[in-house]
Design a protein that fits this description.
The chain is α/β, with parallel strands linked by helices and 502 residues long. The chain has 15 helices and 21 strands. The longest helix has 26 residues. Bound molecules: ligand BES, manganese (II) ion and zinc ion (ZN). The site of manganese (II) ion has 5 residues, from loops.
């Protein structure tokens, strides 16, 4: 779907469908009022009849209204203007999208940007709308579909901007939304693919495919021999329990000045996590195909920033392998040496994410990064602590943490900070190595981050635990594309006023 912005006049706008808001107590939005006038009071008559009262999320499709050029009018209930926040607004867009894509319209003009959303600028409102619709458009690509199952119907969406002075920022908003949705939908597809298709090798070639033809993005893929040469003993200790070869994927985006230090993003790419010898219970184990969603989020973000041509340098590093039980697999009690030289006692082979991440983090030092952010479905404990709404954030630099928290709020892809205190680090003590790979039952998300912190002391580093937010379970099982929104917003914020919508 192509999204664009324009100033139009509703009554004589040619379109298959005009989308206009009705507020609670049958109050017409400005564009709805114009349509009402042009149709000789038809809309207010319907409202008076009780066909709709403007409650949030209601929709009513009208056809061939007299005095109106467009073929259809979709009335959308928007609730109370005074209490309209971004969460409510998203829901309104969602039901708008559902009704629209069930209709026969192939194109539409949407006037909901005239609503005022709490704590959001007009341009941010446009961004929210565009992003929500483009995410709604996503369908899992790999599933064979019935012939009669309709393709998503809308090819073109015009977002009306009533005040011409807002057009410029609205244009940027549409571009940002389009880039983020593209990145997030790529991340979702990778996440949703089963582990027998989305292997480390597949992840690597998909990263290469994303960068094909690009002047700013280069991809380097390292195999087992290279990883051995780098002495990534922790990463290899996980990989060796699987017949699939591991990959270390490095994507370099150069949009900034030549010698400007890059931001590094590291993504956990476990394409399937069985737990290894410390094997997981079988219930819902299929969901461990999503254990590469950190990698997918990071690769999706690289697509989004390249799409926007952002003037920054960014490097993505993805260590990728499977975690399986095997005659060659690591055993509880094994001691391995990481690339940093520090030794690790592997007390639980299911705490594998930190083992592949620690070597990737050490590797990231060579880029002399401004900041390093790792993204990982790292701990079940994070789902217990924060549920499905916020990802966990831990950092050794409060300014970086604040920047990420702010980016999360702005993008609606939120994070919540947990403490990274030395007291917790003590839980990692081992009698047989520099550290153990687990810290006991208490504060599992924090001790996992403490483990990673031992590999990032020289850098400004933050860790995002996305175990709770990366996918939905149950009826709507599927990857969410988070945290592409948060990461892209963070990088946009590095590019100055020009890229700000607020
Ligand atoms: N990939 C899992 C974390 C996970 C579990 C994410 C469930 C989402 C849902 C990770 O590799 C893991 O197994 N972590 C262990 C760590 C423990 C052994 C210290 C966990 O959380 O149970
Ligand atoms: Mn695990
Ligand atoms: Zn895992």
């Amino acid at each position: 779907m192509q999204i664009s912005v324009k100033t139009t006049s509703p009554a004589n706008q040619k379109s298959a469908c005009l989308v206009v808001g009705v507020l609670e107590h049958r109050k017409l939005s400005p564009s709805a009022r114009q349509l009402d006038d042009a149709s000789g009071g038809y809309l207010s008559k319907l409202l008076k009849q009780g066909d709709m009262d403007g409650k949030s999320g209601q929709t009513l499709m009208l056809h061939d209204v007299d005095g109106i050029t467009a073929r259809r009018i979709l009335l959308v209930g928007c609730g109370r203007q005074a209490s309209l926040d971004s969460r409510q607004f998203k829901k309104i867009i969602e039901s708008t999208w559902n009704t629209l894509s069930d209709s026969a319209a192939r194109e539409a003009v949407c006037y909901l940007g005239e609503l005022t959303v709490k704590n959001r600028s007009h341009a941010e409102c446009i961004r929210l709308m565009a992003e929500q619709m483009l995410l709604g458009e996503y369908r899992y690509q790999h599933k064979p579909r019935d012939k009669d199952e309709k393709k998503p119907a809308i090819n073109k969406m015009l977002l009306d901007v009533s005040d011409r002075r807002h057009l410029h920022k609205a244009e940027l908003a549409a571009q940002i939304a389009t880039a983020i949705a593209k990145g997030a939908n790529i991340a979702r597809e990778l996440g949703n693919l089963p582990a027998n298709i989305c292997t480390p090798t597949y992840l690597a070639s998909s990263a290469q495919k994303n960068a094909r033809g690009s002047k700013t993005t280069r991809v380097k893929v390292l195999g087992p021999k290279d990883i051995e040469k780098l002495k990534m003993g922790a990463f290899l200790s996980v990989a060796k329990g699987s017949r699939e070869e591991p990959r270390l994927i490095v994507v370099e985006y150069k949009g900034g000045k030549k010698d400007e230090r890059p931001h590094v993003l590291v993504g956990k790419g476990i394409t399937f996590d069985s737990g290894g010898i410390s094997i997981k219970p079988s219930a819902a184990m299929d969901e461990m195909k999503f254990d590469m969603c950190g990698a997918a989020g990071v690769l999706g973000t690289m697509v989004a920033i390249a799409e926007l041509n952002l003037p920054v340098n960014v490097v993505a590093i993805v260590p990728s392998c499977e975690n399986l039980p095997d005659g060659q697999a690591s055993k509880p009690g094994d001691v391995v040496t990481s690339m940093s030289g520090q030794t690790i006692e592997v007390l639980n082979t299911d705490a594998e994410g930190r083992l592949i991440l620690c070597d990737a983090l050490t590797y990231s030092e060579r880029f002399k990064p401004k900041t390093v952010i790792d993204v990982a479905t790292l701990t079940g404990a994070c789902v217990v602590a924060l549920g499905k709404h916020a990802c966990g954030l831990l950092s050794n630099d409060q300014k970086l943490a604040d920047n990420l928290l702010r980016a999360g709020k702005r993008s609606g892809d939120r994070a919540w900070q947990l403490p990274l205190w030395e007291e917790y680090d003590e839980q990692l003590k081992s009698n047989f190595a520099d550290m153990a790979n687990i810290g006991g039952r208490d504060a599992g998300t924090i001790t996992a981050a403490c483990f990673l912190a031992r590999y990032t002391e020289k850098m400004k580093w933050a860790h995002l635990d996305i175990a709770g937010v990366a996918w939905h379970s149950g009826h709507h099982k599927g990857a969410t594309g988070r945290p592409v929104g948060l990461l892209t917003q963070y990088l946009l914020d590095q590019c100055g006023r020009k890229y700000q919508l607020s």
